[in-house]
Specification:
With about 200 residues, this protein is mainly alpha-helical. Helices cover about 45% and strands about 5% of the residues. The chain contains eight helices and three strands; from the N terminus they run H-H-H-H-H-H-H-H-E-E-E. It has a three-stranded antiparallel sheet with strand order 1-2-3, with no helix packed on it. A hairpin with a 6-residue loop joins strand 2 and strand 3 (about 190-195). The chain is globular, with a radius of gyration of 19 Å. The two termini are about 15 Å apart.
Amino acid sequence: GRTSAREPNLQQPPRKGGIRECFIPRKGWLYASADYSFIELCTLSQACIDLFGFSKMAEAINLGMDPHLDMAAFLLGISYEEARARKDEEIVQDRRQLAKVANFGYPGGMGPDSFVEYARANYGLVITTDKARQLKPVWLKKWPEMVPYLRYMGQPGWPATPTGMRIRREHAELDMRGKARILQLRSGRIRGGCAYN
């Protein structure tokens, strides 16, 4: 599982603006930080394998590819190898940032309006709702496991999956805000206060 922090988000302070430098440990202590590359996408890919028996994203990750750069290459119509060779070019960097917004935003059920705001607030990208609408089918083509994933996550219950794994969402625990208590895949850990994603 993972923790979260809001108002302010101390777990993901902005990279720019000198915010991170404000945190100074006491004398004799130090702060250490670990950042796993696209760990959310690794766990998402594994969930798709568990639920549906396949994940193109997992295949890319297991080949040592960066799924954001892979999506950027797909958007640019070039090979992953070419995108990697051109990774310092502005166009490739811009598409990789857009790919990050898609790879992190769409699995959480973002619609066009929230996608636009998420892109602006978290990545400094200014895109239109029309562009967000156009991007989603392209993203789904790149990662076809997301079609059954999004369908599955939107169901009112969690039936047996094609791989035979039976997971349930405990709707009896819905609260007045539409939040639910759920049983996590694999770990069996129970989480409360969960929304759609």
